[in-house]
Amino acid sequence: MVSLVEALARYRVMGIVRGSSAEAAEAAALALFEEGIGLVEVSLTTPGAVRVIERLALAAPEGCLVGAGTVVTYAEAEAVAEAGAQFAVSPGITTGIKRAIALGLPTAPGVFTSTEVYAALDLGAEAVKLFPASTGGPAYLSALRQPMPDVAFVPVGGVGLDEARAYLAAGAVAVGVGSPLVGDAASGGDLVALRRRAAAFAAVAQELR
């Protein structure tokens, strides 16, 4: 089974694909892979997301990982595991995340407080999604890391290029980026613009590797 933490540390940026079109979401994810964003999370709020994950699991370049986002229910965890998802993410410590862990799927449940961080780790989570990160910012991440320096934090929510630099400098293993990276590409928008943004984020990751 893939080590999610190792992959996060290698790529430093996880693309979050959420849109209104399964076909566009798949195209956006493949473009992200091609531009050096080696971790992509497909949100289950996207129509046909499980099928998108299944197709991407087969099409992703070697070394790239596709995961499922917004995994909330038991049934969703079962479905994405069967589809070939290589990790699962959620907004909180959900039934879906608990089932994903039981199935052996690497997970990053959403947390905000230190109590939630320890609850996620006690369940067996490999990493934690600090969400919504913009509420506390990089200074809050730094404060959390003081008593728990070995926890793999992935800030998500309001992360643009400048914020990505700041969170990575503050000790985040990686950042999760949705609309500032993907824009409207997962709903049929501009893939060329997505590629430009992806290249910029990949460059930031390389700077702070």
Description:
- With 209 residues, the protein is an alpha/beta fold.
- It has a single domain (4-207), classed as Aldolase class I (TIM Barrel), CATH 3.20.20.70.
- It has ten helices and nine strands.
- Strand 1, helix 2 and strand 2 form a beta-alpha-beta unit.
- It is globular and about 45 Å long.
CATH architecture: Alpha-Beta Barrel
N-to-C SSE string, H for helix and E for strand:
HEHEHEHEHEEHEHEHEHH
Which segments are poorly predicted (pLDDT under 50) over 5 or more consecutive residues?
none
Q: Supply Rg.
A: 15 Å
Widest beta sheet: strand line-up: 3-2-1-9
| Assembly category | single chain
CATH H level, superfamily name:
Aldolase class I
By secondary-structure content and strand pairing, the structural class works out as alpha/beta
Strand content: 5-15%
- Main pleated sheet: 4 strands, parallel
What overall geometry do the principal axes of the alpha carbons give?
globular
CATH class: Alpha Beta
Helix content: 40-55%
Mean pLDDT: 97
Q: Output the number of helix runs.
A: 10
CATH fold name? TIM Barrel
Number of beta-strand segments: 9
The domain tally reads 1
Straight-line N-to-C gap: 24 Å
Can you give keywords for this protein?
globular; 47% helix; 14% strand; four-stranded parallel beta sheet; 209 residues; 9 strands; single chain; alpha/beta; TIM Barrel
Quick gist of this model?
The chain is an alpha/beta fold and 209 residues long. 47% of the residues lie in helices and 14% in strands.
